[in-house]
Amino acid sequence: MPANQTGQITNEDQTTWALAALSAAETGFSPPENRSWAEYAAEVFDVQVLRWDEETCGGGLRYTIFTFQSGYDYKSNAATGDFFLLAARLAKLTGNETYSEWADKSYTWAKDRGLISDDYDVYDGTSASLDNCDDANRVQWSYIHSVYTEGSAIMQNIVSISHCLTQFDTNSRRQTNGEQKWTDAVQGFVNSSNIFFEDDILTEIACERNGQCSIDMRSFKGITARSYARAVTAAPSLAEPLTRKLEASAKASAGICEEVSEDVKCSHSWDHADSLETASDGNLGEVFSALAIVQSLLFSKAKPLASNGTEAEAGDNATQSGDASGTSGAEVPKETGAAGTIAASVTAVLAVAFAAALSC
User: Fold this and answer.
1) Are the C-beta atoms of residues 80 and 115 closer than 8 Å to each other?
2) Contact of 129 with 116, CB cutoff 8 Å
């Protein structure tokens, strides 16, 4: 929380950095001095627990942090969803049940407030000034939907493994009930994801067709692709139907982007080239999203993520055998042939990944 950003920073912004720190911890990215990446993420979690607002609507996180900021009255489902995912991923990485409890609490709150419908549609948020926050803003964004999908898949993975370990314990019935909750959630989110795919191509339905996507919104599909791929990896038997859509979307995105000299131009829409934008011109979202959707196909060749209380060592992406779900041989998105290719520039990575995706 840099001092010169207090007027702009939101809970969602802060959690985005915490989730990035977790990715560094899970994959063994070289840590900074004096602390680990996981500690950075845990500190954000601790701060946001203190902001969990039970005085209005019984919980949830507000969009902004300070009362003087615009949007403080809004209970943001993006902020709550990111917090839910942060708690779930910390639970998976550390094995600490406190994180699991908060993941369950935040998800249950969103479900009870109608921000997640009975059909697992995911809505934008609600006003804290309304009685019980029971009138949701029903705009749907792929990004918020995907973080709930990923978090639920991780929780299903955690509970199913715990159930296997405690199946002869007196708590086995409670474990089974918990597993069913997350199994239903993953299946529900996979089914409701159809709204974001037109002819199996990922589309930001709230703004893409009318050309009203802001700079932030133009990066949502990249975040969505990443979370959906991680959901498939964490709960392959439940989330695997997303694989076909990821593959179709990656091919469509790769077909739209063009390499021009030392740059890459990509379109926000993947079924047609509405306009080709470059990251060097400030249009990072288009290029990021294209890279993310193509890289989502490479998860099956990546080394497993650290989990169960062990942070990956720097320079090594894994601390245990198997995939990120803790099981080996799981069905995840098919490789494209570009796995293992590391390049110094984004242009080179994109060029190789796009060519591989197109050759599928």
Assistant:
1) yes
2) no
Look up residue 181 and give its two tokens.
């909750």
Task: Please write the tens of the pLDDT for every residue from 33-88.
Answer: 888 999 999 999 999 999 999 999 999 999 999 999 999 999 999 999 999 999 99
What distance in Å separates the CA atoms of residue 355 and residue 346, rounded to the nearest whole number? 14
Can you read off the two tokens belonging to residue 116? 């997640």
- 77-86, 192-201, 210-219, 258-267: least confident range: 258-267
Residues 6+ apart with CB under 8 A from 104: 155, 178
Bridge partners, 116 (sequence order): 122
Q: What is the mean pLDDT of the chain?
A: 84
Q: Record the tokens describing residue 339, joined without a space.
A: 């796995």
The gap from C-alpha 164 to its chain's centroid, in whole angstroms, comes to 26
* Rounded Cα distance, 332 and 174, in Å: 29
Classify 200 as helix, strand or coil: coil
The percent of the chain in helix, strand and coil, each rounded to the nearest 5, is 55, 5, 40
Q: Which residues, including other chains, have CB under 8 Å from residue 271's CB and lie 6 or more apart?
A: 198, 199, 201, 203, 252
